[in-house]
Automatic annotation (TrEMBL):
InterPro entries on file: BtrH_N, DUF4872
Name of the protein: BtrH N-terminal domain-containing protein
Domain DUF4872: 154-324
Protein origin, superkingdom: Bacteria
Coiled coil start-end: none
Residues covered by the Butirosin biosynthesis protein H N-terminal domain: 14-142
Pfam families linked: BtrH_N (PF14399), DUF4872 (PF16169)
Length: 328
């Protein structure tokens, strides 16, 4: 068995930040999960629907792996990404890192992993791999999925090779923190303003504050989008609250990031943004509750209320991001 020494297998709430935490703590850098999420400009919104989808999806963060790229670029860290269509080369990339004493991050489809009891395809899942033997790989996943877990090597290969929405060619990555890298807290303002600018100026109407407003109009029709409301609406709400988002569609994480920043930055704009995102987080949890109730009762009035609340959240988050975009 080959295992990286001195691993802190602490799972947290969101898969990508859990993995980043493992890779960074191994190098002696321990940042909170909200700080990792915020420094990676991770907050966003997407209303995703297409003919190929069985039901609409509401997402609350940037696309998979963009958070990691943002974080490395913002902090001046060395991000080594390996991608290949060869199953043999894909495993060699991983084994080489572990054999050299470094944990490695993987993007894959969680459906195939042995430790996932709920089998749902999600191609943007990220885990840290820190050891392997002839039959199993040893991983760190979120606390919800068990933290330190194991999966069969065949299952891992299938998870990495799966094709579909949000998947990548078998991708592995390592992070290195140079000695002369800037202090993380010195990069808070650029991370916040970059996140705010992207949220305020989305390229299409499905993203950012425009996407939330669009969802506010379309969520009212969700009972017409399914032949099983009692399954699809509560599942959509569950993904918002429990699907590795930290609750409130990632707004809890961003609220906590802003609160941590407010302790070290004496900024009135930052405190205003914090207050507005605390309000937004509570609103998103209420939206999820209304969607769940609509699915169970099949009463449109709950979706109408959720739609009105989403329109208000669009305005609320736009105001918060306008304040945060002016940080200096």
């Amino acid at each position: 068995m080959t295992t990286v020494e001195d691993i802190d297998p602490r799972g947290t709430r969101h898969c990508e930040t859990s993995t980043l935490g493992v890779l960074l703590r191994h190098q002696g850098l321990d940042l909170s999960e909200p700080m990792l999420f915020g420094l990676g400009s991770g907050l966003s919104f997407v209303h995703w629907d297409s003919r190929a989808m069985g039901f609409p999806f509401l997402g609350g963060r940037v696309k998979p792996f963009e958070l990691t790229r943002n974080l490395a670029a913002n902090l001046g860290w060395e991000l080594d990404v390996r991608e290949t269509t060869s199953p043999r080369k894909a495993w060699e990339n991983v084994a080489a890192a572990v054999d050299a004493g470094r944990p490695v991050g993987l993007q894959l489809d969680s459906y195939h992993l042995d430790h996932f009891s709920t089998k749902v395809h999600f191609g943007g899942h990220v885990v840290a791999l820190y050891g392997y033997d002839d039959h199993q790989a040893h991983l760190v996943d979120t606390d919800q999925q068990g933290g330190a877990v194991s999966t069969g090597l065949d299952a891992l290969a299938r998870a990495r090779a799966e094709r579909g929405p949000m998947t990548a060619r078998p991708r592995s990555f390592t992070l290195a923190v140079p000695r002369n890298a800037p202090a993380p807290r010195s990069r808070i303002v650029p991370a916040v303003t970059a996140c705010a600018d992207a949220f305020l100026n989305p390229p299409i109407a499905d993203l950012g504050h425009r996407g939330i407003a669009k969802a506010g109009k379309l969520v009212r029709t969700w009972l017409d989008r399914t032949d099983d409301p009692g399954r699809d609406l509560p599942r959509a709400a569950l993904l918002m609250e429990k699907g590795g988002t930290g609750g409130a569609l990632f707004r809890n994480l961003y609220r906590d990031f802003l609160a941590e920043c407010a302790e070290s930055l004496g900024s009135a704009r930052l405190r205003t943004g914090l207050g507005l995102y605390a309000e937004a987080a509570a609103g998103w949890t209420h939206v999820a509750e209304l969607i769940t109730t609509a699915g169970r009762t099949e009463e449109e009035r709950y979706l109408a209320e959720a739609g009105d609340l989403l329109l208000g959240l669009s305005r609320l988050e736009r105001g918060a991001m306008e304040e945060l975009s002016r940080l200096t």
